[in-house]
Amino acid sequence: MVAKAMDDDDEEDHDVLCEWIVDACLSYFRESTLDVPKEITFNDFYYPPTHHLKLLVSGSSLYPKATQDRGTMNAFRLMIPSGDLPPFSEVPRSKASDLRIISDTEWDDYMSEIPQKAIINDGTSRFFKPADDKKQLLREIDMHLRIRHAGLRDKIKVANLHSIVVSDDAKMTIGLLLDLIPSTGDSLYSHKNSALASEYHARWKQQATDTVKQLHSHDLVWGDVHPGNIVIDTSFNAWVVDFGGGSIVEFVPRKKAGTKDGDWQGVGKIFDEWILENNHLDRRAE
């Protein structure tokens, strides 16, 4: 296991080794950290107290000193210096210490995942999108401001932008807070070839089409059209999310990415081919 970890380029074997080590230490960690709160803030997540462990084999260090911190999360990679961004005076700021993360008591995975839900001071839940890519963050904010200025916020099913999350000293931008869509699944990927996909296919296609039409009528382009960016809520309505740009070539050809034509090709690919493609094959077989 150790030999595999030391020759591991993708770090999968390294994670397996770390998990094996941590599993043996979990009881000690729990005994030594009884004062850890059930609820932590985003400030706690991005600026945590860090304790370094050193693995010894036969009295000697397993890894050279230069690689001992290989598994340590560098939180600053998940942030953008606020000075690198325009002021965006129209968008409120939320301090990281004012946002809470509700921990899952059943979750024992030591490899921290970026939280996706924030609880603000009044108890309202919001969706949290991390600021891990400057270009995408800028496009996301700009698109939401343009949607607001165009008067579309209440006309299309798009999760509204509420605030920019910053560190308590405001020097680092951590992410964005948007509407938390009450969802029956993570995205349209969860519904491919399902009974719901057959029952609500026409509605979802129409809702996505209406949203794209409204955006295009104000010279706005969705951009990253794929099933993962269509969320189905608990009332079985389709919401469009993610205006950060990018593309998945299965749905939008690279040359068409970021264009109105690309948006229409993506919507057509999703609803005319992808979502029910296995069902079409089944019918042909009959």
SSE order and pairing:
Elements: H1 2-6, H2 12-32, E1 39-41, H3 42-46, E2 56-57, E3 60-61, E4 80-81, E5 93-95, E6 100-102, E7 117-119, E8 125-130, H4 134-149, E9 161-166, E10 172-179, H5 195-217, E11 230-232, E12 238-240, H6 260-274, H7 277-285
Helix pairs in contact: 5-6
Overall description:
- By secondary structure, the chain is an alpha+beta fold.
- The chain folds into 3 domains: 1-36, no CATH class; 78-179, 2-Layer Sandwich (Phosphorylase Kinase, domain 1), CATH 3.30.200; 188-285, Transferase(Phosphotransferase) domain 1 (Transferase(Phosphotransferase), domain 1, Orthogonal Bundle), CATH 1.10.510.10.
- Helix content is 33%, strand content 15%.
- It has 7 helices and 12 strands.
- The chain has helices at residues 2-6, 12-32, 42-46, 134-149, 195-217, 260-274, 277-285, and strands at 39-41, 56-57, 60-61, 80-81, 93-95, 100-102, 117-119, 125-130, 161-166, 172-179, 230-232, 238-240.
- The strands form 4 sheets. Strands 4, 5, 7, 8, 9 and 10 form a 6-stranded mixed β-sheet that branches. The chain has a two-stranded antiparallel sheet with strand order 1-6.
- A hairpin with a 5-residue loop joins strand 7 (117-119) and strand 8 (125-130).
- Residues 64-71 and 281-286 have low confidence and may be disordered.
